[in-house]
UniProtKB/TrEMBL annotation:
The keyword Cell wall biogenesis/degradation applies. The keyword DNA repair does not apply. It comes from the Eukaryota. Residues 1-22 form the signal peptide. Belongs to the pectinacetylesterase family. Hydrolyzes acetyl esters in homogalacturonan regions of pectin. In type I primary cell wall, galacturonic acid residues of pectin can be acetylated at the O-2 and O-3 positions. Decreasing the degree of acetylation of pectin gels in vitro alters their physical properties. GO terms for biological process: cell wall organization. It holds the Pfam family PAE. SUPFAM superfamilies: alpha/beta-Hydrolases. Its EC number is 3.1.1.-. This is Pectin acetylesterase. InterPro entries: AB_hydrolase_fold, PAE/NOTUM. Keywords: Cell wall, Cell wall biogenesis/degradation, Hydrolase, Secreted, Signal.
């Protein structure tokens, strides 16, 4: 009896540990979701009078197979232009990372990043999407569109996984959305700007020339990529975290067929998902807005938890003011890699740059970083003014900041509060799962000696 009881208890403990690890895995995915939200527009507190714009689902998208990961129709938010902007269109592609395996893609189906069932019914339009001249001087009265992101491959996938009911239809979502917007008046645009933040910034690079080809040659068309310059960088342990992820995204979601052949004819598909191998060959005028020390790349590409098992980089990762000289040099090397990656791109007269030396991510949708009295500046020119000057050809814009710590206008992100909450929730979940399991098992065992033997190892 004692032996059987101990065996049952041991087996249940193993199952419990497995369950706790499974739950811990879900917590990890939730933590990554929270990080994305914090880094992107959700981190900004909208003003009391900010514009709320309703969600529109794309009718007929499902019949075309243009669906989110879970098979629901994709959607967008549109605020109509007025006055001089009535025939001008701004398309903002939403960001939100990628899913590179079945587990992460299945998880996304339970969030707004994989299903329109969970998308907000209305969202704030701030920054480059604001309808107020004092907040968005050059684009406030344009037709402004936010295209929601629910495919997990920067609007570039084509495929499906029937066993898990996953649909990788990013390219079809892009096409269906463009068709819908053209029918709603964009075909008559006199000028158009395709923009995007984070994974949406990568999407604006991937689809820039496609966007241009939608319009007649008389239409002024340009593209803006905000926080989209993801680099094929080496992490602190010498690995290639982002390359590994991108390789899995490209393979799982069938991205290869939708990558520019100007790249795939010379390089492998994974390399052609990296902007550094694409931007020099884009025909359409493009503006790169990026923090030299991009906060998402610092967290998830340069210093992922897997590359820092002992936590020696943790304080530096959460708050750059805690980096020692060796760690800061590593981050300076990353900045240099970014500047080298855009060297050829920057030499084209039609292209624009705003590379500030900040620890930030996505600066066009947040009002405080887009256009405020204290917003980031290079040469005393704010992001919104720089983008406007470039789009309307008022002046050439090739703004590159000096290296950290020279810029006092940055709105740097610090993660102590957010990450400590996440860490506590993870450790608490693991601890309570095991304690509850043991309590339940010990109550059901009738042999007190068995209980004592398990607890004290006697």
């Amino acid at each position: 009896m004692n032996r059987v009881s101990i065996w049952v208890l041991s087996l249940c403990c193993l199952v419990g540990i497995g369950l706790s690890r499974s739950e811990d895995g879900v917590e990890e995915l939730k933590a990554k979701e929270s990080l994305l939200s914090y880094l992107e527009k959700d981190a900004a507190s909208p003003g009391a009078n900010s514009l709320m714009v309703p969600l529109t689902l794309i009718q007929g998208a499902v019949s075309k197979g243009a669906v989110c990961l879970d098979g629901t129709p994709p959607g967008y938010h549109l605020d109509r232009g007025f006055g001089s902007g009535s025939n001008s269109w701004l398309i903002q592609l939403e960001g939100g990372g990628w899913c590179d395996n079945i587990r992460t893609c299945v998880f996304r189906k339970t969030t707004r990043r994989g299903s329109s069932k969970f998308m907000e019914k209305q969202i704030n339009f701030t920054g480059i999407l604001s309808n107020k001249a004092e907040e968005n001087p050059d684009f406030y009265n344009w037709n402004r569109v936010k295209l929601r992101y629910c495919d997990g491959a920067s609007f570039a996938g084509e495929g499906q996984n029937e066993a898990n009911r996953l649909y990788f239809r990013g390219q079809r979502i892009w096409s269906a959305a463009m068709e819908e917007l053209m029918a709603r008046g964009m075909q008559n645009a006199e000028q158009a700007l395709l923009s995007g933040c984070s994974a949406g910034g990568l999407a604006s690079i991937l689809h820039c020339d496609e966007f241009k080809d939608l319009f007649p040659k008389t239409t002024k068309v340009k593209c803006l990529s905000d926080a989209g310059m993801f680099l094929d960088a080496t992490n602190v342990a010498g690995g290639h975290t982002l390359r590994d992820m991108y390789g899995s995204v490209v393979t799982l979601q069938g991205v290869q067929k939708n990558l520019p052949n100007t790249c795939t004819s010379q390089m492998d598909p994974t390399s052609c998902f990296f902007p550094q191998n694409l931007v020099a060959n884009i025909r359409t005028p493009m503006f790169l807005l990026n923090a030299a020390y991009d906060a998402w790349q610092v967290h998830e590409s340069l210093i992922p938890s897997s590359a820092d098992p002992h936590g020696s980089w943790r304080e530096c990762k959460m708050d750059h003011s805690h980096c020692n000289s060796t760690q800061m040099q590593f981050l300076q090397d990353f900045r240099n890699q970014m500047l080298n990656a855009i060297n050829v791109f920057s030499k084209s007269n039609q292209n624009g740059l705003f590379i500030n030396s900040c620890f930030a991510h996505c600066q066009s949708e947040k009002q405080d970083t887009w256009y405020e009295n204290d917003s980031p500046r290079i040469g005393n020119k704010a992001v919104a003014v720089s983008v406007g000057d470039w789009f309307f050809d008022r002046t050439a814009v090739k703004a590159i900041d000096c290296a950290y710590p020279c810029d006092s206008t940055c709105h740097d992100l610090v993660f102590n509060d957010v990450t400590s909450t996440i860490t506590i929730s993870q450790s608490t979940r693991l601890t309570f799962t095991l304690l509850n399991l043991l309590s339940a098992l010990l109550i059901t065992l009738t042999c007190s000696k068995c209980t004592m033997e398990f607890q004290f190892g006697q």
